[in-house]
Amino acid sequence: MTTATREGAAATGAPSPPPARKRGVLGTRPWLAASFLLPALVLLGALVVYPIIYSIYRSLFDAAGSGFVGLDNYVQLFTDDGFFTSVQNSVIWAIVAPVAATALGLIYAVLTERMRWGTAFKLVVFMPMAISMLAAGIIFRLVYEQDPSRGVANAVWVGVHDTFSESSAYPGARPGPTADLSQAKDGTVTGKSAVRAGDPANIPLVGVRAGTIPADASDAKPAQPDGDKITGTVWLDFAKGGGGQPNVIDKGEKALAGVEVEAVKDGKVVATAKAGEDGTFSLPATAEGAKLRLPAANFAEQYNGVNWLGPSLVTPSIIASYVWMWAGFAMVLIAAGLAGVPRELLEAARMDGASEWQVFRKITVPLLAPVLSVVLVTLMINVLKIFDLVYIIAPGPTQADANVLALQLYLSAFGGDPDHGVASAIAVLLLLLVVPVMVVNIRRIRRERRR
Q1: What does the alpha-carbon distance between residue 172 and residue 149 come to, in Å, rounded to a whole number?
Q2: C-alpha distance from residue 70 to each of 58, 420, 424, 431 (Å)
Q3: For the chain, what is the total number of helices (H) and then of strands (E)?
Q4: Are 224 and 191 in contact (CB under 8 A)?
Q5: Which residues pair with 223 in a beta bridge?
Q6: Taking Cα atoms as reference points, which of 273, 260, 280, 270 lies closest to residue 173?
Q7: Please, is 180 exposed, middle or buried when counting C-beta atoms within 10 Å of its C-beta (0-12, 13-18, 19+)?
């Protein structure tokens, strides 16, 4: 038996095996992999890499783009108070909005897991995600309207307030110019002369807004003199059609029923009374020599709620609208992670005597930590780009107080006095703020792959 060698095979003319073709790490020919990746790389370069490089380049030139200014655009930014306001608000957004949306999504996901109608509830909570930022901004601009008859938020707030605090009966009322009365800055009306028993005290007021007095209000009547009491009348010293004499109860002039009257002597209230349906009131003889005072609560302006879009509340209000939209997104992701939590761990903890709060805090949340970090990082990147909600909801007078970096970029590039150099500098700084968050996210993904 003979053994064939490689030389023998070559000598006899036997064909040699073809050389192995070069393959990549994934077992694919490199040129084939490159041909599939090329369209994606071209799009990535055209839509991401080129804009980044051009923004850095453009930030070194002036507004027209013809003069090289170096870092002057960046210096201009860091010496602008408006830019620091936008940075401060962006930091608030990056901290508050993702945490609030994630926490609310976690609560929704945990509570709806045991609800019979959990799926329907999740659908309702997730529905705002189907609304564009433009539509959501318009909705919440109406919700935050100052007028309670139009703004839902203030309608609810005023309703709650009026439940516990009685509103004034005649807002804006004041003494007539010739009346023997004076009005303080806080709205309190005080008589100039001391009152005496048997001499009726007239308190004529004007300035009551139309529609404030009920249509069925009684006509004012002169108070009857009483030697043992202090009497008087509170009325609206104005009749429809004009006419009549000032400080005199004329025919057709209406009584101001329910007005509280105080008798003040030596700085102390010695007696109080309320005007009746005909406007008359009566005080005991102890009020002799006192001055009459009508507390400001009688004429305080009607409570119109909170100025949600004012300088101090505009940013929290817009963040609340963002949380309303994105809490459903957080809920869906967390619910998906919650479905993968081993139930035997939860049941074992309950059997060992752990309360539901302990199970949630020490088992559910730690097991959901990877999902929670994904939601937090995603929302953090998203809020750094927030622009449309702020632009639409914040009114013109307070838009500067609600300004964020993305909105500052837009206003610098397309506002009344556009400066593309400054806008490009803002874009570069915004990119630098996003990069650390992206690095953290990439590291987290790599750690999960190694597990």
Answers
A1: 20
A2: 10, 14, 13, 19
A3: 16, 9
A4: no
A5: none
A6: 260
A7: middle
What would the pLDDT profile of 205-239 be if each residue is shown by its tens digit?
988 876 778 778 888 999 988 888 889 999 998 87
pLDDT of 6 above 50: no
User: Sheet of 181-183: strands edge to edge?
Assistant: 181-183, 189-191, 291-294, 260-265, 268-274
CB 45 within 8 A of CB 408: no
Q: What is the CA radius of gyration of the chain?
A: 38
CA 314, 315, 318, 323 torsion-angle sign: negative
Q: How far apart are CA 231 and CA 199, in angstroms?
A: 7
At 293 the three-state DSSP class reads strand
Q: Cα(329)–Cα(325) distance, rounded to whole angstroms?
A: 8
Q: Are 192 and 182 in contact (CB under 8 A)?
A: yes
CB 126 within 8 A of CB 381: no
Q: How far apart are CA 407 and CA 247, in angstroms?
A: 59
**CA distance linking residue 182 with residue 174, whole number of Å:** 9
Q: Which residues pair with 232 in a beta bridge?
A: 201, 281
CATH class of 78-153+308-414: mainly alpha
- Give dist(CA 239, CA 169) in Å, integer: 19
Give the number of other Cβ atoms within 10 Å of residue 232's Cβ: 23
Weakest mean pLDDT among 5-19, 64-78, 105-119, 257-271? 5-19
The pLDDT of residue 10: 47
Which of these, 135, 155, 156, 153, lies nearest to 308 by C-alpha position?
A: 153
Q: What is the mean pLDDT of residues 263-283?
A: 91
Quick one: angle between helices 420-450 and 50-58, nearest 10?
140
Contact at 8 Å (CB) between 292 and 261?
yes
- Name the amino acid, one letter, at 178: T
pLDDT (0 to 100) of residue 56: 92
**Which tokens is 109 given?**
């996901």
Query: What does the block give as tokens for 342?
Result: 């081993």
How many whole angstroms separate alpha carbon 61 and alpha carbon 63?
7
- Domain extents in the chain: 78-153+308-414, 174-298
pLDDT of the residue at 102: 95
Q: SS3 helix, strand, coil % of the chain, rounded to 5?
A: 50, 10, 40
